[in-house]
Amino acid sequence: MTVLNRLDEKYDIDTIRREQAGEAFFELARALGVGDEQASR
Known about the structure:
By secondary structure, this protein is mainly α. The chain has one domain (2-39). The chain has helices at residues 2-11, 15-31, 36-39. The longest helix is centred in the middle third of the chain and has 17 residues, at 15-31.
């Protein structure tokens, strides 16, 4: 989420796109075997 927060500060991502980006990121992380706690850093 830290990365998404930095991107939001730089590009002012709207809420819907931000949620979609977060969901896609976590799905990708799970597919790669990254735990939720590590992915949320």
